[in-house]
Amino acid sequence: LGITVYHQNRKGSASSTDLSPQAIARTVQAALDIARYTSPDPCAGVADKELLAFEAPDLDLFHPAEVSPDEAIELAARAEQAALQADKRITNTEGGSFNSHYGVKVFGNSHGMLQGYCSTRHSLSSCVIAEENGDMERDYAYTIGRAM
Questions:
Q1: Range list of H helices, the chain
Q2: Which among 119, 112, 120 has a CA at the least distance from the CA of 53?
Q3: Residue limits of CATH 3.30.2290.10 in the chain
Q4: Radius of gyration of the chain (CA)
């Protein structure tokens, strides 16, 4: 959970992994405390109400994928194997990696705006080491998308 507050053109941010009401209250207080010690910025603050988008279109950002740990391991292993077979100069890898992220963003302010959306991000990558004439080079390739 990340919280950003604006107080007298000063910005403060704090975060917590504890979602209990007490922890959220402490996080808000920490953000306020930080804002008190930052320099004022005339451009910092909540935008004027007439500039806010109280209704937002669906941007089609949420595409959940049910991937078990075993399937994720298989995807990462296949990425590593594909990398090893791509070129005979590739002699080793740092492995393959699969990540799947689900996120929720909520924005609210003192003008009564309260908007939120869910999103997903899935990625697959591999990092390889190639060798030629005694010289070695490391590089990687990846793909990332909202949907699988």
A1: 21-37, 69-86
A2: 112
A3: 49-148
A4: 22
